[in-house]
Design brief:
Layout (H helix, E strand, L loop, with lengths): L4 H4 L5 H14 L5 E2 L11 H11 L14 H15 L9 E4 L2 H12 L5 E6 L4 H8 L3 E6 L15 H6 E7 L11 H14 L2 E5 L25 E6 L12 E5 L1 H14 L5 H12 L3 H23 L12 E5 L6 H12 L1 E2 L1 E2 L10 E5 L4 H12 L5
Parallel strand pairs: 1-10, 3-4, 3-5, 5-6, 6-7
Antiparallel strand pairs: 2-8, 7-8, 9-12, 11-12
The chain binds pyridoxal-5'-phosphate.
């Protein structure tokens, strides 16, 4: 069988190798504790589930959904963005529902990338950005992020000829995997850079609601003029513990939203209406679960930071997102480190190289692990030392 070149060209999926190794360990009877996956262990709040059950029984929700979603969902998104960020969006032209933000990110390059176009992607960063660019026939250019700059993009370090060729730039703050956060001044610099070089910006804000110590992440679209060049992709997955329900949204520049809606309407048939009803209940309903869950993650963060430091890694407690991004001692490879930790004490962490070449030298630990497992994992980390 002949596979398309674009499939052959995909990078090997590092995490599939890790999953295989975990499965082998478990088959040998090892009690594996995984800090690998960023998937909230906390349940979807009950009032959101109630909306699903009620909506599922209504025949109006049992046929095909519209690919641009229920008007009520787009309106709820606009209300939520107004309540949360003080921004106003026209629900009919500046909002599009997504089947989870990953779906939107995957389709966005099809809207803006022609063959030979360049797209700027953060490195380390969420692997979907470069892959989606490649699948659209474009070329990803890795913007190297360093701890020294707080993992913020240094726009001056991007060669002018690259910037001039670039059609699209992905940004992600609060960030996966680095947990870095950005302020409005950074978003203003990004907007100016984008305007100077005629680049479209896609800001991934999947972690907008996961923050600690009173920190409140800003929207990219709060930056003056951002709406001229940008859309923001967001999701109910992390903030409302809804990863399994697959719903998110993109908001911002109307031409960009229209292009994405056009691509999507040719490829998918939208989000099940009952799930859109859940999302309306989540966005319009009480927001207490976010505060309560963040208190849980913050407590986990603090105990896990101690354990990671005891194991010989360096880490700054994150202000937002679900991850500890931990620096390994000089010269230690992230894959070797993760392999040794799994072999020695049955603890899984994600090697930084999985997020790009500049993720090397780091590992990522997720806070989405139930408290009893966290306790056991911490015990093992504290009793272990890299030698
Ligand atoms: C989890 C995650 C997403 C995907 O979320 P879905 O809405 O569930 O598809 C997008 N971007 C980043 C950076 C993530 O970590």
């Amino acid at each position: 069988m002949k596979l398309a070149q674009r499939v052959e060209d995909l990078p090997p999926y590092l995490f599939a190798g890790i999953s295989k190794k975990i499965a082998e360990k478990r088959a040998q009877g090892v009690d594996v504790i995984s800090f690998g996956i960023g998937d909230p262990d906390l349940p979807t709040p009950p009032h959101i589930l109630d909306a699903l059950v009620e909506a599922a029984r209504d025949p109006a929700n049992q046929g095909y959904p519209e690919s641009d979603g229920l008007p009520e969902y787009r309106q709820a998104v606009a209300r939520w963005y107004n309540a949360r960020f003080g921004l106003d969006f026209d629900p009919d032209s500046e909002v599009v529902p997504l089947i989870g933000s990953k779906e939107g990110l995957g389709h966005i390059p099809l809207c803006f990338i022609d063959p030979a176009d360049v797209a700027l992607v953060p490195d380390p960063g969420y692997p979907v950005y470069p892959v989606a660019v490649q699948l659209a026939g474009g070329t990803p250019y890795a913007m190297q992020l360093s701890e020294h700059d707080g993992f913020l993009v240094d726009f001056d370090a991007i060669p002018k000829e690259v910037a001039d060729k670039a059609a699209l730039m992905f940004l992600n703050y609060p960030s996966n995997p680095t947990s870095a956060t950005a302020d409005l001044a950074f978003f203003e610099r990004a907007t100016a850079f984008a305007k100077r070089h005629d680049i479209i910006v896609v800001h991934d804000m999947a972690y907008s609601e996961i923050a600690y110590d009173e920190y409140v992440p800003p929207s990219f679209l709060e930056a003056p003029g951002a709406r001229d060049v940008a859309i923001e992709v967001n999701s109910l997955s992390k903030g409302y513990c809804m990863t399994g329900w697959r719903i998110g949204m993109a908001v911002g520049n109307a031409r960009m939203i229209d292009a994405l809606t056009t691509i999507k309407s040719n490829l998918d048939s939208g989000i099940p209406n009952a799930i859109q009803r859940m999302a309306i209940a989540a966005l319009d309903g009480p927001q207490d679960s976010i505060r309560e869950n963040n208190a849980i993650y913050q407590r986990r963060r603090d105990t896990l930071v101690d354990a990671v430091r005891a194991a010989g890694l360096e880490v700054e407690p994150p202000k937002a997102s679900l991850y500890l991004w931990c620096r390994l001692p000089d010269g230690v490879s992230s894959v070797d480190f993760a392999g040794k930790l799994l072999d020695d004490v049955g603890v899984v962490v994600t090697p930084g190289i999985g997020y790009g070449d500049h993720g090397e030298g780091y590992v990522r630990l997720s806070l989405t692990i139930p408290d009893d497992r966290l306790k056991e994992g911490i015990k093992r980390l504290k009793a272990w030392r890299l030698d």
